[in-house]
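Ex. 9. Protein: DUF6194 domain-containing protein.
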Amino acid sequence: MDEAAITRHITETYPGVDTVVALGATFFFYNPEDGAPKDHMFPFATLVTGDEHDQFSNLNRPGVFRLNVGASKQTFQSLFQTNDHDFTALDTIMPHPVYGMMYWVCVLNPSAETFERVEPLLAEAYQTAVGKRAKREGQP
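Predicted structure tokens for DUF6194 domain-containing protein:
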């Protein structure tokens, strides 16, 4: 999987997804009517291609990118039993090096097989974003 394939998958699979590309990253927002200002939303996933945001994953290596996905606390805790992670390792699902404390997971250059394991995390993150938007708008 490359960045374009992942972006295409997210935008074609999940309705109402808006993307913003800035500062070496692609941010994925749930914004069904394109009505909320981007600076008032929080992404449910991101793709990062460089070390502008942090240097833990050494993303400035040629062709290396990191997919980051917001997970629930329960899901996050079920995935990781240890705090010992090599944040530069490719094709390995692990806590985000900075936002792991907020239950974000990441993977550098996921293979198709690993992306299949990430897909349920993306679905969960998307559904959480949909629920937050509905709650903000006063819907049940």
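Check your answer against this statement. The chain has a mean pLDDT of 91.
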